Amino acid sequence: MLRSALFTLSATLAVTVSGLNILLTNDDSWASANVRATYEALKSDGHKVLLVGPAVQQSGKGGTSVFPTVNITAPGGEFGSIPVGAPYFGHDALDQNIWYFNGTPAATALFALDVIVPTRFRTDEKIDLVVSGPNEGSNLGPFLYTLSGTIGAAYASVERSIPAIALSAGNGTHRSFTTNTGSKTDPANIAGRLTANFVAALARGVNTKKSRLLPLGVGIGINFPTFGPGNPCVAPPFTLTRLTGGATIDKVVINPATGFPTFTNLVTDGINVKLNGLHNLPGETVVNAGCKTSVSVFSIDYDAPTAVAAPVQAHLLPIFGKSQLPHGF
């Protein structure tokens, strides 16, 4: 029985679990500071990690799956990380567990699972967890759930029956891993360590040879607040949340200076209706506004709850015919 809507985990949670086989990906490219710091943090905790990220930044692609038809074109890989004309996928010259693929995040995750994983893991091994992110910027609420490439790579993996988590960070600066200062207060290193701490908590007590880390068809979306140098929020506690609750969607407005459309955030009842899950949980958008990390469990089953769907189905009964209705309807 859930006694509280909130739970916290120490930001310095000790690792007491066996190493996992992890596929790490993102949408900000294989050369982003966040993903490389997370790669190092997960490895330092004893996990076997394969990083496969897009060749260039692919933010806002959602779950679209676009595959390359040519090799790397100008201007090359993100931050100059891949030369023009290089193959559409390849690995770091110094680390054969760091790869790029010139596709959208969902396509990158699928390519990694089907093409690269078999070359880096034994045939008797499996991926225990897909970790997507941490994204450079927050992905809060149902609207960004469908828009985010970071989350898209995660739910594509869940649809492939593999447990997955998507992580996003309030620090939205797009930067190369070569800019990482190595300091514990570098936002990329904070995000990487918090990610590794969450993975440790998720895996604690689970024998992945016998059990899954998450139920089939279920994933987790995590949003870190803004933290880093000059910001006292460096150890935001993990807080159980739901996607809805204070969530926003775009409202189109015309920029008076340019005459072109842009958007502002709009809170609506439609995006914040509570149909599934625990209704007493706080919304991740509200929680993330403070120094807390939201943790929302999502499902890839988009069917409406029975009680909500039944009146709609009953109203449409004349067009279905009795033979097409479920037994007992």
From TrEMBL:
Keyword entries, A-Z: Hydrolase, Metal-binding, Signal
Transcription regulation recorded as keyword: no
Pfam families reported in the protein's UniProt record: SurE (PF01975)
Signal peptide (UniProt feature, chain positions): 1-19
InterPro entries documented for this protein: SurE (IPR030048), SurE-like_Pase/nucleotidase (IPR002828), SurE-like_sf (IPR036523)
Domain Survival protein SurE-like phosphatase/nucleotidase: 22-226
UniProt keyword Metal-binding present: yes
Domain of life: Eukaryota
Family as reported in the entry's similarity comment: Belongs to the SurE nucleotidase family.
Annotated PANTHER family: 5'-NUCLEOTIDASE SURE (PTHR30457), PHOSPHATASE, PUTATIVE (AFU_ORTHOLOGUE AFUA_4G01070)-RELATED (PTHR30457:SF0)
Name of the protein in question: Survival protein SurE-like phosphatase/nucleotidase domain-containing protein
Gene source species: Hohenbuehelia grisea
